[in-house]
Amino acid sequence: MHSIQRVGTVIERAYGANALTIACQDGKAAGQSVPHVHFHLLPRKVLGDRFSENNDAIYPALEAGEANLASELQKPPVNQSLKVDADEERPPRAPEDMEREAQWLRTFFEHSEISDLP
Q: At what angle do helices 2-15 and 95-110 cross, to 10 degrees?
């Protein structure tokens, strides 16, 4: 948890966020495509994100993705590749773009005082 808090603090600073939504994927059934514990840290803003007018509206949106979970789990397994939600809507990122972002984020860790990070 210490690492998540530390990275979360940097993400909030880097993206001008007021808070985070944190999700964990652990296991194939949770949408994990590579076997390792996997956390998503989503920067959130009081003003300017999709749910800023009604912050609690994020919960029904998250639950909508789980609405059919019980019936889906009762279906017999089908051999198919793992499909991650919104893959077709997510533009591909070049390795160079991801490297550039990682280098930029690294500067937030390098210039942070240890005492001001959780």
A: 100
Q: Which of 37, 41, 35 is nearest to 9 (CA)?
A: 41
Alpha carbons 104 and 42: distance in angstroms, whole number = 17
Contact 59, 44 (CB under 8 A): no
Helix (H), strand (E), coil (C) string for the chain: CHHHHHHHHHHHHHHCCCEEEEEEECCHHHCCCCCCCEEEEEEECCCCCCCCCCHHHHHHHHHHCCCCHHHHHHCCCCCCCCCCCCHHHCCCCCHHHHHHHHHHHHHHHHCCCHHHCC
Burial of 105 (0-12, 13-18, 19+ CB in 10 A): middle
69-92: per-residue pLDDT in tens? 566 656 776 665 555 555 666 778
Fill in the amino acid letter for 19: A
The set of catalytic residues is 38
Note the pTM of the prediction, 2 decimals. Answer: 0.52
